[in-house]
Amino acid sequence: RFGCTALTGTNKVGTLRQDEDGYYEMVVGALNVFNSAGQFYLYEQSKSLFDNSSQFMRRVTKGALRGENGHPKPQVGQKESDYARRIMSIYEERVCCHHKEIYLDDQKIKDEKGQPVIAIMSKVKPAGELGYVLENALKNKDENVCFSIRSFTKDFYDKGVIKKILQTVITFDLVNEPGISYANKYNS
Q1: 72: which DSSP letter?
Q2: Would you call 58 exposed, middle or buried from its count of C-beta atoms within 10 A (0-12, 13-18, 19+)?
Q3: Catalytic status, residue 173
Q4: How far is the C-alpha of 61 from the C-alpha of 77, rounded, in Å?
Q5: 150-170 per-position pLDDT tens digit
Q6: Is 158 a catalytic residue?
Q7: What is the model's pTM?
Q8: Do 178 and 148 form a contact (C-beta atoms < 8 A)?
Q9: pLDDT digit string (tens) for 21-62?
Q10: Distance of alpha carbon 67 from alpha carbon 124, whole angstroms
Q11: Sorting pLDDT into bands at 50, 70 and 90, what band is 114?
Q12: Dihedral (CA of 106, 38, 87, 55) sign
């Protein structure tokens, strides 16, 4: 038999509490950390996207930041420019959540060496046509819920490591497995 061991040895039970408005506080991304492909997301060069008037922050401040069920996938034969336009759009029929508030937290998460990770936190609530997908997953204590940042980055090599600087943040989508391992319900 095989099963989930993510919470073994912790005093966590796999559930999150909702606030009075029905939002869950979750880790949806991170900076100063490696993703699953071994690429490093830089904080200092990316942090301005979280405190200026970017398209991303406009959506947050206007209460209009929603995430989709899954990242957009390229279509067969689709031009790269058309795919980039799709990435920049949040399709109403794919919406599964509303992000009420996004903030950075340098205290909540430490990496395996004990170094602080800059967690990207969200107050997120199931919403939209596919909101039931997120709602069901959040209520199932045995199912982890994962998010991933949808963004464009400027990448460069530094001592054999690809480093990523966020250029544009679009949203945080519900995904099967996170690119950043900390961006899930069990770490929240």
Answers
A1: -
A2: exposed
A3: yes
A4: 36
A5: 999 999 999 999 999 999 999
A6: no
A7: 0.90
A8: yes
A9: 999 999 999 999 999 899 999 999 998 888 765 778 889 999
A10: 9
A11: confident
A12: positive
| List 122, 151, 173, 188, catalytic entry | 173
Residues sharing a CB contact under 8 Å with residue 8, sequence separation 6 or more, in sequence order: none
Residue among 105, 82, 84, 54 nearest 152 (CA): 84
| Among 71, 105, 111, 181, the one annotated catalytic | 71
| Given the residues 46, 122, 148, 151, the one annotated as active site | 148
User: Quick one: pLDDT at residue 154?
Assistant: 96
Annotation says 98 is catalytic = no
Q: How far apart are CA 150 and CA 68, in angstroms?
A: 10
The confidence score (pLDDT) of residue 11 equals 59
Q: Where are the alpha helices (DSSP H) in 18-175?
A: 55-61, 80-88, 131-139
